[in-house]
Amino acid sequence: MRGWWRDLTDLVLPADCPGCGAPRVALCAGCRSALSGAAPRGVRPNPWPRGLPAVHAAAPYGGAVRAVLLAHKERGALPLAEVLGEALAGAVRAALRDAGAGQVEGGPVLLVPVPSARRAVRARGHDPVRRLALAAAGRLRRAGMPVSVLCVLRQRRAVADQAGLNSRQRQLNLSGALEVAPDAGRLLRDAGRIVVVDDLMTTGASLAEAARALRGVCGVHGVVDGGGGTTAGVTGRVGGTGAGTPEVGPRAPGIGRRAQRGAQVTAERQVGNRPSRDRGDDRVRRTGKARPASGMSRSDAILAAVVAASTASFEINRN
């Protein structure tokens, strides 16, 4: 934790730019431009995780962008939330525009942050993604867009540290790890669009798992994902066809056998997109079929937006 003298100094004197170290400036013009100077665009991780929706990012992850994100997340530079929220808002607008939903009808846009582990929030003293989502929503509302932040995702089991895991291992680590809070189904189904938001996308595993959990209570089946494939809202066999009972597959390094078995049980419970805790819809509980979403298009009900994505995901030729 920073000393009180450091907090007082930050209030009286401008800190150095967290992106490039320029003295006595909260964020220099060059680093601000690196975050929000270019038009946000669609990005594609390779390999593409099954069920990952279309993702838009404001900037490649590296250099000043990386430094600013880490300063906000790990070093508690909370004033940076505004400029990072501005960048995230641009990615959200681009996602809606490319989905043909620039003028949202039928309900508000819901920004759903990818949740951080409780231990990480305690260690950092704040929830960085939630803070960025709120800043982005404020930007979008001031521009006239009906936007709300809905923090309904939560971890249902412990996961291993993602550092050092490859794409497949991260998918195994996160399979079935998230759930939607009880009684959130109606709010989600009444949305015009749902945009899963995060500060950073590397492999896309976190966004894919968040989308899977949300689809389970939104009644979205057979959705075209951002990779051009389809998903039934259940991850299924990782890297396979996904039919039938999901399989978690080989244990990833650093993941205990008990946690791996927990992922398997969780995935099995998700078969058929059965939202187990939405008390407001008896038909869902009896039949496993969710009622139609009132404001959402089935093919692009759930989108994703991030501040930054890996440089490689920007460089992949999409044609």
TrEMBL record:
Region (Disordered): 236-299
Domain of life the protein comes from: Bacteria
Residue runs in coiled coils: none
Basic and acidic residues biased stretches: 275-285
Family to which the UniProt record says this protein belongs: Belongs to the ComF/GntX family.
Name assigned to this protein: Phosphoribosyltransferase
Lineage: Bacteria, Bacillati, Actinomycetota, Actinomycetes, Kitasatosporales
